[in-house]
Amino acid sequence: MNLVTLLPFIVLIGAMILMTRSAKKKQAQAAQMRDQMTPGTGVRTIGGMYATVKEIGDDTVTLEVAPGVHAIYAKNAIGAVLEDAEYNRIVHGISDDLSTDSPVVPDDASSLTEAPAEDEAPKLDLGKKDEPKKDEPKDGKADGEADAK
């Protein structure tokens, strides 16, 4: 056999080795991340649910999904271990950064229904007109269309 015949097989085997190495690295990172869990840590499951770790077993984790509501999950179901600041920002809406430039949303809708200021431009009427133009027939059909008279 010559080298040209074996080259595709060599490339295929090399690609398989590289893919398995990257998968093993990802699994090791996920295991290391799960080992960082301690009771009281905020986590996100692979299903997207945010919870607090209450108890850690060998293969399971007890999560508090709501105050007083506990659920048992497999350790593999933990998608991310969150820092306290990030968990509080996402779950409780508590932000450490008070200098945000985001707009303030009112608690009620009364400020949204105020009368417009006088200096605002008048609104355009984009509604459909009911009367036909001079060149259009009154039934709305033109020559050449289906069901034309």
Alpha-carbon Rg, integer: 32 Å
How many strands, which pairing sense, and closed or not: the largest β-sheet? 5 strands, antiparallel
List low-pLDDT spans: none
SS elements, strand count = 5
Distinct helical segment count: 2
Class of secondary structure makeup = alpha+beta
Strand content: 15-25%
Helix and strand pattern: HEEEEEH
Strand order of the biggest β-sheet = 4-3-2-1-5
Q: What form results from the Cα inertia axes? A: flat
Q: N- to C-terminal separation?
A: 80 Å
User: Percent range for helical residues?
Assistant: 25-40%
Mean of residue pLDDT? 79
Walk me through this protein's architecture:
The protein is α+β, with helices and mostly antiparallel strands. The chain contains 2 helices and 5 strands. The chain has a 5-stranded antiparallel beta sheet with strand order 4-3-2-1-5. A hairpin with a 4-residue loop joins β1 and β2. The model has no long low-confidence stretch (mean pLDDT 79).
